[in-house]
Write a structure and sequence with these properties.
binds nicotinamide-adenine-dinucleotide; Rossmann fold; alpha/beta; 2 domains; seven-stranded mixed β-sheet
């Protein structure tokens, strides 16, 4: 039966993938039934006194999907399109991601339907602090650890940490990850998801006897994930021919100078107008003939409508849920390697896990150590999924989900959660 949790397209997509992967490994029926729904969904009202003196009441969600493997873990999103069903789907994806990456963490997600660009800094801080207060009985270093996602950043995490710590009476740095390094953040967290995208692309190219150096790449989205993916690909000798953001796309067949573009975006906020490239549409960026396409912006951008026009040989899902179920099936059957979100963008939660561990023991690593450990996890996870897909002759999404479910199933049965 459909309800406000299950009704959204991303939730439906996620459940379809779960059921399909369950069939591949003959998943215990009771485990499947439990994983189809989140454990807890909390919706709160967030009154904020706006700069004009009027109170505006925002709505906030936090969905805790599963905590069999450890405390709930997942980002907080501030974006106008946030709704309960989308948050619930993203929470479920976190459960599957943490299990796949062998982390001792469960899955959660939160969000507020708001455009943070329309709020002043004071309003954003008030919103964040009040939302944290409402969530505080349910979050904590041993319970549920939020992190940045679309529309939130290290400053938002710093306000959350401060509010939670004030209420606890002492500083609890482990309550959030993705915070500034000055207050317990990890070296390398900001670039982690983008680095992870490139590490799995590197491994995928190797299966096609290619190298990242010289490979062509198109990146949709130039935010926390897309920008760092482009920076790392460029640093490793990749040719990033196209990028896009909310303002539109850019193309330069010879390769965009990414450090120049980063400087341009820091000054101008968007990629539009960058001189050394021609303007193309966001849709065109997805349909270029490149070795690697990295959708790193929104969900539902590769669909049954445009999948026949996709020419990339490898798609690395930097974003959560960018490919619909139908498009994934079509592309996989056509021989396109679609590296699913729970593997491809796992670098963020891997370094979030490193950050949480560092906070718990008050001992910090340098950036090189973080990168080396991250590369090891991403390479190892890709290899595990690739081996499963080759052995069972299934696409990478099914292989990733099945690999994740095998660990979860074992843990749930051991804990007596599924009889
Ligand atoms: P962000 O807000 O930092 O960046 C989003 C980017 O997408 C911006 O450049 C924005 O301009 C662009 N964008 C928005 N609408 C667009 C459109 N219609 N076409 C093209 N570009 C558009 O967000 P982020 O943290 O980079 O997250 C992006 C995706 O990656 C989300 O799906 C998120 O859930 C996922 N993700 C993020 C992390 C992380 O560590 N930040 C980790 C895992 C997954």
């Amino acid at each position: 039966m459909m309800d406000s949790i299950t009704s959204g397209p991303l939730y439906q997509n996620t459940i379809t993938n779960l059921i399909d992967a369950g069939k591949v490994i003959n998943l215990n029926r009771n485990v499947l039934e439990r994983l189809k729904r989140p454990r807890r969904a909390l919706t709160v009202s967030i009154p904020v006194k706006m700069d004009d003196g009027k109170v505006h009441v925002f709505t906030g969600h936090r969905v805790q999907h599963n905590q069999t493997l450890g405390p709930y873990k997942g980002g907080l999103r501030y974006h106008p399109s946030v709704d309960l069903s989308e948050v619930a789907a993203l929470a479920a994806l976190m459960t599957f991601k943490c299990s796949l990456l062998n982390l001792p963490l469960g899955g959660a997600k939160g969000g507020v339907p708001v455009d943070p660009g329309q709020l002043s800094k004071n309003e954003l801080e008030s919103l964040t602090r009040r939302f944290t207060s409402e969530l505080s009985p349910f979050i904590g270093p041993d319970k549920d650890i939020p992190a940045p996602d679309v529309g939130t950043d290290s400053q938002v995490m710093a306000w959350m940490l401060d509010t939670y710590s004030l209420e606890s009476g002492y500083s609890q740095t482990g309550v959030v990850t993705g915070k500034p390094v000055e207050i317990g953040g990890s070296a390398g967290r900001e670039s982690a998801t983008g680095l992870g995208v490139v590490y799995v692309a590197q491994r995928a190219l190797e299966t096609q006897k290619k190298k990242i150096s010289g490979a062509t790449m198109a990146v949709q989205g130039f935010g926390k994930v897309g920008m760092h993916a482009a920076i790392e690909a460029y640093a490793l000798g990749g040719r990033v021919v196209a990028v896009s953001d909310v303002s539109g796309g850019l193309l330069n067949e010879r390769g965009i100078n990414i450090p120049d573009l980063v400087r341009y975006v820091r000054e101008n906020k968007v990629v539009k107008g960058f001189p050394d490239a021609v303007a193309i549409s966001n849709e065109d960026v997805l349909e270029l003939d490149v070795d690697v396409l990295a959708p790193c912006a929104l969900d539902g951008v590769i669909t049954e409508k445009n999948c026949a026009s996709i020419k990339a040989k490898i798609i690395v899902e930097g974003a959560n849920g960018p490919t619909t179920h139908e498009a994934n099936t079509y592309l996989s059957e056509k021989g396109v390697m679609v590296i699913p979100d729970i593997l491809a963008n796992g670098g963020g939660v891997v370094v979030s896990y490193f950050e949480w561990v560092q906070d718990l023991v008050w001992l910090f690593w340098n950036e090189e150590e973080v990168r080396n450990k991250l590369r090891e996890v991403m390479f190892g996870s890709f290899d595990k999924v690739w081996a499963f897909s080759q052995k069972e002759k299934v696409n990478l999404r099914l292989a990733a989900m099945a690999t994740s479910l095998m660990r979860l199933e074992k843990a749930m049965l051991l804990r007596g959660q599924a009889w």
